[in-house]
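During the second year of the project, the team shifted from modelling isolated chains to modelling whole assemblies. The rationale, set out in the original proposal, was that interfaces cannot be judged from single-chain predictions alone. As a representative example for this report, we include one of the complexes processed in the last quarter. Its constituent sequences, exactly as entered into the pipeline, are reproduced here:
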Amino acid sequence: MRLIEIAVVGTVLAVIAGSLALSAGSSTAALTSVVCIFLCSGAAWWFVHNRFRAWGYLEREEDLEVRRGVLVQRLSVVPYGRMQFVEITAGPVERLFGLSTVKLHTAAAASDARIPGLDPDEAARLRDRLAALGEARAAGL
Amino acid sequence: MIGGEGAAKWQRLHPLSPLVRVGRGLLPLLVLAALSSIRTAHGDRLQYLIWLAVAVLGAVFGTVHWLVTRWAFDGATLRVETGLVRRDSQQLPVARIQAVDLVEPFLARVLGLAELRIRVAGAKSAHHLSYLSHPVATDLRARLLATHHGLDQSVPEPDERAVAVIPTGRLLGSVLLSGPTAGALFFVVLVAVLPSISTAAAAAVAGSLLIYLIGLGQGIWRRFNEQYRFTVALAPDGIRVRRGLLSTVSETIPIRRVQAVRQIEPLLWRLFGWCRLEVDLAGVPGHGRSGGSGRVTKALLPVGPLASATYLRQAVIGPTEPHRSHPPVRARNKAPLSYHFLAAGHDETIAVAVTGRVQKVTCWVPLEKAQSIRRVQGPVQRALRLATVHVDVAGKRAGAKFRDRDIDDADALVEHLAARSRGARRRVAVEAAVSGPALLAPRALTGIAMASPPSSAPASAPPPGWFADPARRHQARYWNGTGWTEHVVDEDRTGVDPL
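Output from the structure prediction step:
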């Protein structure tokens, strides 16, 4: 079981908070707003941190298990044979931090198996492994 | 037919098909033309000319399309060629045909024509042959299906056994006893009561009522038109459905492609013991409004008594009925209303779950069709130590939903269901390897053979189909409804061996 970071959002939020505080101007209002914003970003950081800790995936013999969520906890079990295709995406922010997301697609729209914040090498390894396993165990509809 | 008589010779569509083809598009135009000519009472010559040009253009296009379209069937492949500028030649190998539907739009029906809609595995949309004369269409359909099942072309289409015909009265009742009509009643009462309070408000409500009623009438008419004389019949190659008032559709639902079966019992229908049976199909192109996933939900029985629905369901997914259990009583705190019906269960092959309060929905999912298993736990559920387990099947709508199970149960359930669906998939793969593509869903056959029809259905000898060879020399032998034929199947090849 591996835990992978997605705490990008928290950092960005902190930067925005800082710039906002600078432009605010007057003393007391600025101070309270800065405190507020830092509290908020702190809470956000805590939330994101937990979220990041909740993400996890487990490659089992016959299927892939993906879990995520803090408030609503989700656990998906996707058999390798059911994967239609595997996709790697990397948005601009993700690329900035050298991360990428692996997405598994099955014929069902509801089975959301997404593993974000992977190291590109790990993502490529996972994709190749999943594709190979999926091919070996492919089953028709 | 112009192309001649031989089976492999090129043949044209029916000479009247351009008329139907163009006529369908032209009808609204004609209405429009009539309307506009009424408005400009003095007869604007230019306008008439425009309409005339449109009509001539349509006729020319239709005729050219008819001239350049031809088809041929040589016993293995159906070839269709069409297009003047961009020549389009389609080869439909019989082995990959999944279903052949017969569609008769109103205009075609009046002229004795029919459209053949051929669905092929892997194709994005259905192939059309529109239009053929009715006898030619049925004959071609029988020949295609016979060849597809590895029989000689001359073997007639297997007879089917009618299971249910929906009486017009019941259809009408079911359409009227739906939520929108109840809404209309509420509206009418509102309109009747309001004038005593405020005339202006009543006028406004009456106006919107009118619009609502028009929409409602359209909806009712559409459902009535589509589902009029809905006939369900079991045949060896699937479930045959025939329906329609103005335009009739005759289609086959391939049992192997069924992903899930849903039985829906709305509140008002429960008074009469009625329900609707729907199946989710995967990868059947050609109908369904939502493109993309290629999944369609089809009514197997738009309205019918529970006994008929049960019988049909058993024919589709087998007679097993897993034991259902209720979630723990503390789930009532989370789902006070829907707790009443909540239940779920599974066995080696099938998962079943009941949800809903106003509209009771029972969903059966064959475990080998499961795409993924999910466990979801919200904050309230966590406080109550509950979790919901989903069995997802292909398509947008989720499959069976084991709502609000005990958390430990849910964990075990995820593992169980994953293991069971794995086992079921393997078993099906083995069965498919043994029986070969020519044989039809074995489970469907056993289901039909084992289930006894409800008292309303005509009881008779077993329906025609492939069954285990009584002589035990071959894997299966064809039963034509009254006696065994000489057609046999081994592995995936067919042969002839008199009994």
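Residues 1-7 of chain A have pLDDT under 50 and may be disordered. The two ends of chain A are 30 Å apart (CA to CA).
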